[in-house]
Design brief:
Shape: rod-shaped
Helix content: 55-70%
Distance between the termini: 18 Å
Number of strands: 5
Radius of gyration: 31 Å
Order of helices and strands: HEEHHHEHHEE
Structural class: mainly alpha
Largest sheet: 3 strands, antiparallel
Number of helices: 6
Amino acid sequence: MQNTRIVGIAIIVLAVLFFVIGFYYVSSAENALLAGHTVEDSGTCSHDLGAVCPFAELNKLAVPKYIGLFADLLLFALGVFLFVQKKSAEKLMTHAKVEVKSLEGEEAQVAALLVEAQGMMFQNELVEKTQLSKVKVTRILDKLEGKGLVERRRRGMTNVIILK
């Protein structure tokens, strides 16, 4: 989860930087176009003969300006999305904690150890930490697997128990 948050923050900073640079560029371009140009009280513009009307040039600037602003807003929204997004592992742990509360006895003890171990533990570690026999732990895991709370995967001479 930490990686997506860092990427999200980086994208947000990049979007703000692009906005500042774009705003400065558009502002200076508009000021350069309007330099030496006056608008009379009647609304007519006066500029040197043969010079291009700056308002016509400003209209040409409008489309790229708004496209850039829209792209910058999308970039900013992506950064915010990545920053606040919960990783699937975090969602899994939240779900598992809720499910553990509904269990009782030794099943709850085993499930709590799995939650404490971030959702994954070797079966022989469970035997050691619970002080229960291998057979008893296997039966508890059978029940939890039947309820759809855990999954066993074979790893060498032991199993890895994974919260679902």
